[in-house]
Amino acid sequence: MSLKSTIDLNNLPEHVAIVMDGNGRWAKKQGKLRVFGHQNGVKSVRNVTEAAAEIGVKYLTLYAFSTENWNRPKLEITALMELLVSTIKKETATLMKNNIRLAAIGDLNSLPAKCQNELLTAIEETKNNTRMTLVLALSYSSKWDITNAVKQISQKVKEGILDVNQINDNTITEHLSTSAIPNPELMIRTSGEYRISNFLLWELAYSELYFTETFWPDFSKEEFYAAIVDFQKRERRFGKTSEQLKAK
Ligand code: IPE
Ligand code: IPE
Ligand code: MG
Questions:
Q1: Does 97 reside within a domain?
Q2: pLDDT score for 222
Q3: Which strands make up the sheet holding 100-105, listed edge to edge?
Q4: What is the CATH number of the domain that holds 34?
Q5: pLDDT at 1
Q6: φ and ψ of 233, to 5 deg
Q7: Assigned domain for 161 exists
Q8: Looking at the DSSP assignment, which residues form a beta bridge with residue 210?
Q9: How far is the CA of 37 from the centre of ligand 2 (A)?
């Protein structure tokens, strides 16, 4: 029996964020090049996007390339960028068919021109889709995003548009690249690494974290459902006591 039928549709995370990790080790395990792992990771992206949309998740953010990933061997970076272009090209029709909107966060200007073009074309083409928003984090790091927010806020203070005493946590939220997206209730990381790796530091402040040993290319719809079911067993207290939550 699929775990899908055990999911409580009234208690779904509105936003799920995923650190798709383990492509390289997955490939190495079978004596293949790292790129082979990235190629096989695409199928998991497709499966999880479909699974999320089917159950009614509204936002799915996938960490596809970090600021720090620019430090990888040039050959791997090139392969990843090419894979990005070909995948977007190939999948836009499916996004349209499934009524899924594509969005991106990160320093998109640092991507090769061809990537930027494909990405912006797909974002434009899918912009009126309403079932789910698929957010790709590309050349993204949370410290980069927060630094940008601080710069924008400082500029406004300098110009007298904003009073220092008016700055609160909403001010920061509004200046992040994720400003139009609700915070993820659930963050999943694959491949048995227990870290955040500069992903959504501000936005994950109160997220439930789910870690699995599975390498990303093996991450299936069923595992995604397992993460949702696990999430639904958690008591989200936001600083309160369990008794307080039960009293209401
Ligand atoms: C995640 O898999 C994909 C990217 C970071 C682009 P990795 O490439 O990090 O795979 P491992 O962690 O080396 O196995
Ligand atoms: C995080 O994975 C970034 C992405 C999944 C795109 P990494 O594999 O780059 O993370 P670290 O450096 O091992 O923490
Ligand atoms: Mg990794």
A1: yes
A2: 98
A3: 100-105, 132-140, 59-66, 15-19, 186-189, 208-211
A4: 3.40.1180.10
A5: 86
A6: -90, -10
A7: no
A8: 188
A9: 14
